Amino acid sequence: MFEAIRENPNQVIVRDILKTNIKTAHVFEKYGIDFCCKGNRPLQEACDEKNVSVETIIDELKDLNTSSEKEDLRFDQWDLKFLIDYIINNHHSYVRNAIPQLMPHLEKVAFKHGEKYPELLEIKSHFQNVAEEMYSHMEKEEKILFHIIKYLVDSKHFNEKPRMNGFKTVKNPIDSMEAEHSNAGGTMEQIRKLTNNFTPPADACNTFQLTYKELEDFEKDLHIHVHLENNILFPKAIELEKELLKL
């Protein structure tokens, strides 16, 4: 696999690498390569954007693949209903638990240290925007889009042509959700820059350090969350609908 990537980095799509081993995300995270919202592009293009050598990425991917931490989860092979439930139970649940814990820490740090580190006020404002958008976003997915996708799965089971009614096609709500993914990802990228890659200053207190670690963990989870939806769940749902409309 790695020799094929080395020979044709312009032909290998970033999101397809993650499908073989989700922990390859660690390598892309290390170099700031967007594998979720911008995962549908060649590895060479992604590396060029960040001025990192393709050879460097391939070598680290190869080392990761041969380590004892190899991940066996193959999300692209899962039933769509099961994948949806996994996303809700793991990633949506994480977001709903993380925000109420993180927000008070961020408010406390901004209040106590905002004068010396004014970027904290901007970070707090950005994260408030992400939090509000994620709550609304997840509710729309769970109450609308995920039900549509499960309906498509059931339609295939019963060999029936789906009736999409006002949505016309599953692609319409998917496009909306992908736009919101980009907004959230872009805002977290701004937070990453403001925090110097989540690196607290030398005199940071324990709460200050904890807050930056929580923000970093939140971004990492968001990246996997969006990857599972943008690069696996949504494309499969669109293809399933196309298949069913031919009945």
Please outline what is shown here:
This protein has 247 residues and is an all-alpha fold.
Write structural notes for this entry:
The longest helix has 40 residues, at 206-245. Helix 7 runs parallel beside helix 9 and helix 8 (171-194) packs antiparallel against helix 9. This protein is mostly helical. The mean pLDDT is 92. The two termini are 37 Å apart. The chain has nine helices and no strands.
Runs in which pLDDT lies below 50 for 5 or more consecutive residues are none
- Sketch the topology as an H/E string, one letter per element: HHHHHHHHH
Helix content: over 70%
Radius of gyration: 20 Å
Mean pLDDT: 92
How many helices? The count is 9
Class from helix and strand fractions? mainly alpha
Q: Report on the biggest sheet.
A: none
In whole angstroms, how far apart are the ends? 37 Å
How many strands appear in the DSSP assignment? 0
Q: Percent of residues in beta strands?
A: under 5%
Shape: globular
